[in-house]
Amino acid sequence: MLSLINKTAVITGGGSGIGKAIALLFAKQGATIHIIELNADAATAVIAEIKSAGGNGQVHAANVTDQQAILQVFKTIGTVDILVNNAGIAHVGNLENTSEADLDRVFSVNVKGAYNCLFAAVPLMKAAGKGVILNMASIAAHVGITDRFAYSMSKGAIYAMTLSVARDYLASNIRCNSISPARVHTPFVDGFIAKNYPDNQAEIFEKLSKSQPVGRMGKPDEVAHLALYLCSDEAGFITGIDYPIDGGFITLNN
Ligand SMILES: NC(=O)c1ccc[n+]([C@@H]2O[C@H](COP(=O)([O-])OP(=O)(O)OC[C@H]3O[C@@H](n4cnc5c(N)ncnc54)[C@H](O)[C@@H]3O)[C@@H](O)[C@H]2O)c1
Predict the structure, then answer these.
(1) Mutational pocket test of ligand 1: of 186, 219, 250, the residue with most ligand atoms within 8 Å of the beta carbon
(2) Ligand 1 nearest atom to the CA of residue 90, by list position
(3) For 164-215, what is each residue's pLDDT tens digit?
(4) 105 CA to middle of ligand 1, Å?
(5) Smallest CA separation from ligand 1 atom 23, residue
(6) Domains of the chain
(7) What parts of the chain have a pLDDT lower than 70?
């Protein structure tokens, strides 16, 4: 069940949080893992953990915003059965306190980064006659969240990108879906609480936990298990759809 034996999986941002959990779980299920990361040390530690458990993988230190670097990485990898576009950054702010530089930074990583990896991976998948893509969106793509102007737009773009790619590559036997997590407890969440609310971190952590009707944040491993299903052959009938994993955030917050 849900075996990834003989599959090659590329995971962006696999050195931390959700991407790390996906890398570890996919490796456990038999995939060879390629992590594309800005933080090479973190990715190296994840690959070391995979290898010590008997798995196989490689680190590619690269910035997903750099198209030439990303094309080179995918050329080196050669065959890609699964691409998980997970690398992303946050920004807290409404329209008025989001500068042009903030907007460019968030779009460069969250939107152009995913496009760059698709641009490099899809021709390889087409040549192989198959492929699976999973993009990391967010509940912010679907509901209005306070002070997430740039971030929400970037995740809305990820959702639309998922539909577009799923539609265009139906005939190439490439499936493309996205996942929309609510808050998942990762360094990403700890980092933005520390940066944006330095004086009341515990209070904000509690507030963010309770914003999920189930009363807690998600765990990276819970997102990884949904990712595993969507990237497995068992999910062969699923394409062009987004899956919230949100503790009831979208439908039960009333
Ligand atoms: N944690 C949450 O609550 C949450 C909720 C919804 C969606 N998401 C999305 O899930 C994804 C992963 O989030 P996380 O919480 O695991 O984050 P994280 O910060 O723990 O990990 C992200 C990883 O991406 C890497 N990265 C960042 N920019 C990069 C770049 N330009 N090139 C290559 N690597 C880069 C970082 O070095 C880091 O290791 C993001 O796209 C995020 O928007 C997270």
Answers:
(1) 186
(2) 43
(3) 999 999 999 999 999 999 999 998 889 889 998 999 999 999 999 999 999 9
(4) 14
(5) 13
(6) 8-181+219-241 (3.40.50.720), 188-217 (no CATH)
(7) none
- Retrieve residue 30's tokens: 């038999």
Q: Pocket of ligand 1, candidates 16, 70, 111, 195: which has the most ligand atoms within 8 Å of its Cβ, to mutate?
A: 16
Q: Are strands 32-37 and 56-61 parallel, antiparallel or unpaired?
A: parallel
User: Which amino acid does the sequence have at 30?
Assistant: G
CA of 27 relative to ligand 1 center, distance in Å: 19
Pull the structure tokens for residue 54: 């008997």
